[in-house]
Amino acid sequence: MPVATIPNFLQNPRITGYVRSADVPTTFMLGRWFPMDDVEADEFESLIVLDEVDLAPFVNIDAETPVMQDELTAIEKWAVAYIRYKKRFKESDLRIFWEPGVNDPNSLTAQSARAAERKILRNVDRLSMSIDARMEWMLANAINGSISYDDGLAKYTVSYDGNWIGSNRKVPTTKWDQSSPTITTDLSGWVEDVATATGHDSWALLTSRKVLGNMARAQDVRELWQIANRNPASDTTGSLNPYQSRQIAEAIGIIGIDEVIRYNAQYTTRTASAGSGTRTRVNFLNENYIWLLPIGVTLGRTATAPARPNNYQTGKFAWSKEMEDPWVVETGAGLYGWPDFPSSSHNWLLCAHVVN
Q1: Long-range CB contacts (< 8 A, 24+ apart) of 345-348?
Q2: What is each CA distance from 44 to 47, 264, 342, in whole angstroms?
Q3: Do residues 154 and 354 lie in contact, with contact meaning Cβ atoms separated by under 8 Å?
Q4: Distance (Å) of CA 3 to CA 10, 56, 108, 254
Q5: Which residues are CB-contacts of 60 (< 8 A; sequence separation ≥ 6)?
Q6: Is 191 in contact with 256 (CB distance < 8 Å)?
Q7: Torsions phi, psi of 171, nearest 5?
Q8: Computed from CA positions of residues 241, 245, 250, 252, in that sequence, does the dihedral angle turn out positive or negative?
Q9: Phi then psi for 306, rounded to 5 degrees?
Q10: CB within 8 Å of 234: residues ≥ 6 apart
Q11: Pairing of strands 350-353, 289-294
Q12: pLDDT of the chain along its 356 residues, tens only?
């Protein structure tokens, strides 16, 4: 049998290519407002140009023209977080790749090797998804008002001071799961708030299936849907479809919300115990909240810095390392990045706690 080495499909650049091309779960949507962008170093700056519209002065015909002042700008400094995860493959997982006959595509050994490769790559896919999930987790926490993490080894605490996020989030007078809520009035007022602050007129509502269900059954939303579809009031039903955002979007489009996004992305945690374990599914965003987010405008970027395992290139990366006694191959995936969410964008979104 030849001397065992790292299988070709686990070596770079193939393994990094696999991690980079792996499908991102369709439920992960927040990168739309924080697209990936390369930075040159682990520490980077945001240049914020404050919104100004100067009035050109009137002058006498023979007078000197006044000089415009420089832009009002501010600098915010950030540092990337180092995100890495790895999986160990034992000799028993890899031994098949050096068995006699593995190079004959029609042999049983080759078939077993292909099956072993698929199993290993499923784990590599899990590694890639874990990086995507951590990035989605950071973005979800950012639009919720703060990123806080402490596992005893790494610690991050960042708060964002928007007028309508974090502890400043809106709360309707009557929650939407109570009797006689005023959903359309609430939304109309909140759209007016963010539109007045930003001058932007196109907004998306992002929320959970739970909130959409309450909206689908609300009388004022159903009445707006009738108006939008020119249905007489006598034809109303007890509920719109709670599992499709299209009908609700047709209803609340009248008050200035152009898109409704159902968001129920989750990650899992495991708690080990003697002889068993418990798996828990956790929502990235609170299912009792809604967010108003701008359409056609980003809130910032997801900055990615160069990484040594990636030959000092930016973006997602992967690596494999051979170890002995016992012989194992460690394969990992990672990304060095952080949400660049400048203060000038903090008032471009609104969060509200609408159901209990």
Answers
A1: 345/299, 345/300, 346/160, 346/161, 346/162, 346/163, 346/165, 347/162, 347/163, 347/164, 347/194, 347/197, 347/198, 348/194, 348/197, 348/198, 348/200, 348/293, 348/294, 348/297, 348/299
A2: 10, 32, 12
A3: no
A4: 16, 77, 21, 70
A5: none
A6: yes
A7: -140, 120
A8: positive
A9: -60, 150
A10: none
A11: antiparallel
A12: 455 689 999 999 999 999 999 989 999 999 999 999 999 999 888 755 566 677 888 788 888 888 888 766 567 788 899 999 999 999 999 999 988 888 888 899 999 999 999 999 999 999 999 999 999 999 999 999 999 988 888 888 889 989 999 999 999 999 999 999 999 999 999 999 999 999 999 999 999 999 999 999 999 998 888 888 876 654 567 888 877 788 899 999 999 999 999 999 999 998 876 667 788 999 999 999 999 999 999 999 999 999 988 889 999 999 999 998 889 999 999 999 999 999 889 999 999 999 99
Of 30, 6, 36, 126, the C-alpha closest to 316 is 36
